[in-house]
Write a structure and sequence with these properties.
By secondary structure, this protein is α+β, with helices and mostly antiparallel strands. It has a domain at about 65-165. The chain contains 7 helices and 5 strands, in the order H-H-H-H-E-H-H-H-E-E-E-E.
Length: about 170
C-alpha cells in the first residue's frame, strides 16, 4: 500500500533523509524573502479552489438567491449568460414587447440576472456560473418567484447546486 503525503511533507521527509531534520526546519540564509509586491498580489488574488475534496462553492443551498448570488460573485464566480434566456424563461414574446414595456419582468430578468438560463411554470429556475480556476460550470437550481430574485429574505430560494464538467 503506497502512502501519499502533501508536497510540503514530502520535502521534509526527503530533506531529513539527506541532511538531517534540524537543517530542514531552519530557514535558509540564501533564500530571498518574498518581494512585497508578490506578497500583495498573492493576498489580493482569490485562493484556488481546494483540491482535497473541499468545495470551491460557498454554502449557498437553502439561502435566498440574492444572498447566494452575492456569495458566489464574492468567491470569484462569474455569471454565464444564456443567449436564449427570454425564450427559455418566458416563451415566445413579441419582439417589440421590451421596447414598449422595458420594465416588464420578462425584459429585465435576463439582463439583470444574466446567469438565468431557464424557469419552469412551477417556479423551478436554473442559473449557470463559471470560475477561472474551476473546470466546467456551476449549475444552481432555485425555486420560487422569479420576481423576488433580488429579495434578501427569500422569495427565490436556492435548492441545490452542482459543478458540471462536460465529457470530451
Amino acid at each position: 500500500m503506497a502512502l501519499s503525503y502533501p508536497l510540503a511533507h514530502r520535502f521534509v521527509i526527503v530533506c531529513a533523509a539527506l541532511v538531517g531534520l534540524a537543517a530542514c526546519d531552519a530557514p535558509r540564509a540564501d533564500t530571498p524573502a518574498p518581494a512585497p509586491l508578490a506578497a500583495a498580489a498573492q493576498a489580493a488574488s482569490p485562493p484556488a479552489p481546494a483540491r482535497d475534496g473541499a468545495s470551491p462553492v460557498p454554502a449557498i443551498d437553502g439561502r435566498s438567491y440574492a444572498n447566494a448570488r452575492a456569495a458566489l460573485l464574492a468567491a470569484g464566480w462569474t455569471p454565464l449568460p444564456s443567449p436564449t434566456c427570454v425564450r427559455d424563461v418566458f416563451g415566445d414574446i413579441p419582439a417589440d414587447r421590451c421596447t414598449a414595456q422595458p420594465d416588464a419582468p420578462e425584459c429585465t430578468a435576463c439582463t439583470d440576472t444574466p446567469e438565468l438560463e431557464s424557469c419552469s411554470g412551477s417556479g423551478q429556475c436554473l442559473m449557470r456560473f463559471t470560475h477561472a480556476r474551476v473546470p466546467g460550470q456551476l449549475h444552481v437550481t432555485a425555486y420560487g418567484e422569479l420576481s423576488q430574485r433580488h429579495a434578501a429574505d427569500g422569495g427565490l430560494m436556492v435548492q441545490g447546486h452542482e459543478i458540471v464538467v462536460p465529457t470530451p
